[in-house]
Model the fold of this input.
Amino acid sequence: MIVRQLNSSDVDQARAMWITRFDDSPSFVNWYFDNRFLPEYSFGSFDNGELLSISHGYPTRVRTADGIVPALMISGVSTKQGHEHKGYMHRVITAQMEYAHQRDIPLAFNKPVNINTYTSLGFVPCTDALFFHADRISVAPCKLIAHDYRVMSELYANIMRNYFGSIVREEAAFAFKMEDYLSDDAKIVMSQDGYAVYFVRDNEVYVDEMLCSNDYLPLLCAIIQKEKLPLSAKLPPDLDLQGEVRPMCVFAATDQNECTTEELQRKLGYITAKGSKSRQCFCIEEY
Done:
C-alpha cells in the first residue's frame, strides 16, 4: 500500500469513491469534479492501483489573530468499504498536511462528522456555530428582493471580518461558492439587510449560510412563510437567539512542531488571552 498525491488519472476512482460514500446529488458531484477537484492538494492510499482512502484538499485563506493566513480546507475524507479502521485515513491526511507545509500553508481545517476522529492528527475545535430551529417565528417577515452577488459579497466581507477562523472570499470566490450551492439545488434569498442560502429536504428547510446586518428573525420568518415548512439554520455563534452553540470546524497546524494545540486555539482566537472561550470564531464552509 502506498500513499501519494493524486493526479488527473485518478479522477474516475475519486468520483466513484465520493458517490459510494456520500449522499450527494449527481448534479453536485458533476459540478464538484468539474470545478472544485484539485488533485494537487488531494491525497490517497492505493493498493496495486486501487484507491482505498482519500482526502480532498482546497487552498483558502482564513482570519487569525496574526492576520490572514493560507489554510488548506480538507473535505471528502473517505475510505472504501471493508478497509476502514486500518489507519489509511491517518496516513493520507498526514501526507496531505506535510505537503501543505511544504507549500507554506500553515493551517489545515475540516468540518468532521465526529470531532474525536481527528484528535490524533492534532486537530482541535476552533470555530463554533449556533444551530437554530423553528416551526414558526412571531415577527413580521421582511420583503424578499432579487439577489445580487456583488451586494451579498460585500455583506459577507463586512460581517465575516469580525470572526476568526472565517474564510476570506473575494467577489469572484463568493460567486463561485454560490454556484457550488446551486449545483446541489440550493435556493438563495435576499433582503435589504441580508441573504440566506438554504436547501429543502425531507420536508424541512436547512439554512446552510445566512448573514444579516441587523435582526436575523425577519429573514428566517420570510423563508418559513415562503416554503411553509419548519426550519433549521446554522448561524454565527454570538447571536442572541435561542439555539445550541456547538463546535463546528477543527483546525491543525500543518507542522505541529511549530505550535501546540492550545497555542493554535489562541492563534485562532478560540481561547482568549484570559483562557476563556470566545464566541467570535465562525467558519461557514463545511467542505
Notes: DSSP finds seven helices and 13 strands in the chain. The first helix runs from residue 11 to 21. The first strand starts at residue 2 and ends at 5.
